[in-house]
Design a protein that fits this description.
It is a single chain. By secondary structure, the chain is mostly helical. The chain is built from four helices and no strands. The chain has a domain of 55 residues: N-(1-d-carboxylethyl)-l-norvaline Dehydrogenase, domain 2, CATH 1.10.1040.10.
Length: 81
């Protein structure tokens, strides 16, 4: 998504930034309201939250973070920039 669509963050990095527990809570709320299977929290997301992988702030989720600031400008440029 970052390179192919020129998005600033891909879905896993965005989920880490928001917080895996927050994303799961949003999915649970949407699923409870609409009962649409597409809104059900993904099993992987639930397993990660239960394992304590909550995203960027506590140090890890889909990616690991060492406490150093992430410099988006240092990321390799994609075909669109």
């Amino acid at each position: 998504m970052v390179l192919g669509c020129a998005h600033p963050l891909g879905p896993p990095a965005l989920t880490d930034l928001i917080g895996l527990d927050t994303v799961r809570a949003i999915a649970e709320s949407l699923y409870a309201e609409f009962r649409e299977p597409r809104y059900a929290p993904p099993p992987l997301l639930s397993r990660m939250v239960e394992a304590g992988l909550l995203g960027r702030k506590p140090g890890g989720g889909f990616h690991t973070y060492d406490g150093q600031p992430q410099d988006a400008a240092a990321a390799p440029a994609g075909p669109h920039g």
